[in-house]
Automatic annotation (TrEMBL):
Span of domain PseI/NeuA/B-like: 90-208
GO molecular function, one term: N-acylneuraminate-9-phosphate synthase activity
Any Gene Ontology biological process: carbohydrate biosynthetic process
Signal peptide bounds: 1-22
Pfam families associated with the record: NeuB
Organism: Homalodisca liturata
Annotated protein name in UniProt: PseI/NeuA/B-like domain-containing protein
Coiled coil: none
């Protein structure tokens, strides 16, 4: 499918970047903290701070940054279209392309959206329901389905995590024992969400890709 082709092409591109010695400093900003695609956040007595070290250990002990090989995350997001079989195909494609980790998106719809937003008519040709709530619900896996996907990722030896889109989902991700928690760029200024994640003392990546402030 087009989705799998795009994932394969993207991962192939990043695989080429592994051969450039400068890739680590390009992503992590060398030994100084610079705003880039990823900010690493640490927590010290629940005080937020951006680490100045180019190396961070994931929850499974794997180092990222510094002289370590480029850590490639395959962004699956919700491209699975709410289908577990498609999600597994994407996980396998990521593994075959040499990615280190697959990342999904996890939302608790009642926590993240207002009732009026969920009830809003959503009649796009790409909609999975008559309302925005129905559309989003179709794209959310159940806990059992996520457990099945996490187990599959473990079986083929690729890390599994997700972006936490709200405070409830952040807690769920922690209960899964993910190697790190990701905050999407749309929430890069969501201080309450970031503090919630930081208090878990789990490695935290914050994207700034769509943050133009």
């Amino acid at each position: 499918s087009d989705t799998i082709f795009l994932l394969l092409f993207t991962l192939f591109f990043f695989e080429l970047l592994r051969y450039f010695n400068s890739i680590s400093s390009a992503i992590w900003g060398g030994n100084e903290f610079n705003k880039s695609d990823i900010i690493i956040i640490g927590s010290n007595d629940y005080e937020l701070m951006a680490t100045s070290s180019p190396v961070v250990l994931l929850a499974n002990g794997q180092p990222v940054g510094g002289e370590s090989p480029c850590f490639i995350i395959a962004e699956i997001g919700q491209n699975h279209q709410g289908n577990v079989s498609i999600a597994k195909d994407l996980i396998l494609a990521a593994k075959q392309c040499g990615a280190d980790c697959v990342k999904f998106q996890k939302s608790d719809l009642l926590e993240k959206f207002t009732s009026s937003a969920l009830a809003r008519p959503y009649l796009s040709t790409h909609s999975w329901g008559k309302t925005y709530g129905e559309h989003k619900a179709h794209l959310e896996f159940s806990d059992d389905e996520y457990g099945e996907l996490k187990k599959y990722a473990q079986e083929i030896d690729i890390l599994f995590t997700a972006s936490g889109m709200d405070q409830v989902s952040i807690t769920v991700l922690d209960s899964w024992g993910v190697p790190f928690i990701k905050i999407g760029s749309g929430d890069s200024d969501n201080i309450l969400l970031i503090k919630k994640a930081a208090k878990l003392h789990r490695p935290l990546f914050i994207s700034t890709a769509c943050d133009f402030s």
